[in-house]
Amino acid sequence: MKRILDLIFSILGLIILSPLLLICMSLIWLQDYHSPFYLGERVGKNGKRFKMIKLRSMVQDADKTGVDSTSATDVRITPLGSFIRRFKLDEIPQLLNVIKGEMSLVGPRPNVRREVDLYTDEELKLLRVNPGISDIASIVFSDEGEILQSEEDPDISYNQLIRPWKSRLGLFYISHQNFLLDLKVIWITVIAIVSRKAALKKVVSLLSNLNAPDDLKKISLREEKLVATAPPGTNVIVKSRSTVSKG
């Protein structure tokens, strides 16, 4: 049923959004005459690597800097790219990844190899399912760029402030995933484009109905400052990306 939902929604989505996609592609190409697409290698189900397709929101060859986490003030983001990212338009081409079977509409967001290498044994369970275009965690942390914008090292800050909770939310989703839950996440994702505050309330209500832990519901409201936390499966806070943080 999940695969059928993925195919139907993805094909319809591409058809409906094709005019908007063509406009964005043209504008991106006109700003520097380079490809409007960004193909980023990500780790998918069972550790299989694939090329995730996005509309390019950064300057050409931005990933050669070696920085994986992006802050809102990242100089690599173009003015047009800021607009595209704000309304999640850069994610539209990932519908092709869904059609190819590399991704799902709903599932934990795919990560780069360097970040997956830091996963604990518990976090490796995230690779048991296809990664998704959206999930509960991506709604809760849709302001990831703003969180990291004042951080000296965005990659380390991501692993300390965001990764622990995104992983926990992803694991929670996997343990409760079903057709109805996917429909609810898709609907909340649409709401988030219009009102992030309303979407967060919907997320907390959803988590409550699924008897999620109190700390998971509390963090999903995003009313308190994030503090450095250990990822699931360990009690060690990440200090470096050169070692795997297993407890």
TrEMBL record:
GO biological process terms on file = polysaccharide biosynthetic process
Any transmembrane segments, and where? 7-30
Q: Give the record's keywords alphabetically.
A: Exopolysaccharide synthesis, Membrane, Transferase, Transmembrane, Transmembrane helix
Report whether Transmembrane helix shows up as a keyword of the record: yes
Citing just one GO molecular function, the answer is: phosphotransferase activity, for other substituted phosphate groups
- Supply the InterPro entries for this chain: Bact_transf
A Pfam family that this protein carries is Bac_transf
Keyword hit for Membrane: yes
Bacterial sugar transferase domain residues: 2-194
Superkingdom of origin = Bacteria
* Name of the protein in its database record: Putative undecaprenyl-phosphate N-acetylgalactosaminyl 1-phosphate transferase
| Source organism (scientific name) | Caedimonas varicaedens
